[in-house]
Amino acid sequence: MSDSKSPKILITGATGNIGKELIKYLSAKKIPFKAMVRSLDNTAEIKAVPFAEVVKGDFDDKVSLVNALSGIEHAFLLTSSSAKAGEQQMRFVDEAVKSGVRHIVKLSQWAADENSTVRFLRYHAIVENHIRESGIHFTFLRPNLFMQGLLGFRDSIRFHGQFFGAIGDAKISLVDTRDIAAAAGESLIDPKHENKTYDLTGPEALSHHELAEKLSGAIGNEIQFVDIPSDALREMLLQVGFPQWQADGLVEDYAHYKRGEAAVVTSGVLDATGFAPRSFDNFAQDHAQLFFPPVLKSRSPQ
């Protein structure tokens, strides 16, 4: 039998961008939790977080999942986006049900649909349906494109003053990952969010050209968005090391955006957290120093 004082919340994807923000969010609220990691090496940073406990678990190892899920009542479900993500997540759900977990908060994606042309949206919808059919309580978080996705273009922006995409002038209601983490945190600790789905967006829809303009203003240096064909985007992703499956999926994602299917602004962040979502201007100001060109970063105050 588990210790009644042991954490009742399990965070998967704990070392990723959203997982790290979720850990900070729960810790700030003094909520005990377990953070699931594949390896116990290099976990000192997580262990140092107040109210955190690290547990080893692997989505491909049922025995380790059973151990990680022991005594857990609420679980945050997030895996890496790979060809086996759907299979991994459904395995986790099955083991969670067997282990007596009462509630799963799943990070899904904007417009998840089993009939979508986008592979990411298909697998998320399949997992959502698997969770519903399992009978477990759920909260589905469906965020739009992450503002922090721009950090993947950090070097291109710093050294060349540009970033790329196959999207034309289409607008997207991007969302800050800190708001996604807050929505996840609230969903894990407040039962009023059970059996609900939240579409998470920022407060406005912006084109990539507008993102470049706002980022330029924040860092004081001109940044340009360069629209490229889908094939060029795929080749670029492969060259920087993305697996073929994921590169093709991202190209499908951008085709979905280009069709104007991700421009709607929703109240999801407000509904889930009680506060308005951060704007892209907020994001740009908070992260400006990461995009400074080397010559600007090295300047000394006068």
**CATH domain topology of the domain at 9-144 and 177-199:** Rossmann fold
Secondary-structure arrangement, i.e. CATH architecture of the domain at 9-144 and 177-199: 3-Layer(aba) Sandwich
Helicity, in percent?
A: 40-55%
Return the string of H and E elements. Answer: EHEHEHEHEHEHEEHEEHEHHHHH
* Rg result: 20 Å
Structure summary, number of beta strands? 11
What's the name of the CATH homologous superfamily of the domain at 9-144 and 177-199? NAD(P)-binding Rossmann-like Domain
Question: How much of the residues is beta strand, in percent?
Answer: 15-25%
What is the CATH class of the domain at 9-144 and 177-199?
Alpha Beta
**Total of helices:** 13
Tell me, rounded to a whole number, the average pLDDT.
Answer: 95
Distance between the termini: 64 Å
Weakly predicted, low-confidence segments = 298-302
| Main sheet strand line-up | 3-2-1-4-5-6-9
**Which structural category do the helix and sheet elements fall into?**
alpha/beta
The 3D shape can be described as globular
The main pleated sheet reads as:
7 strands, parallel
Domain NmrA-like: 7-246
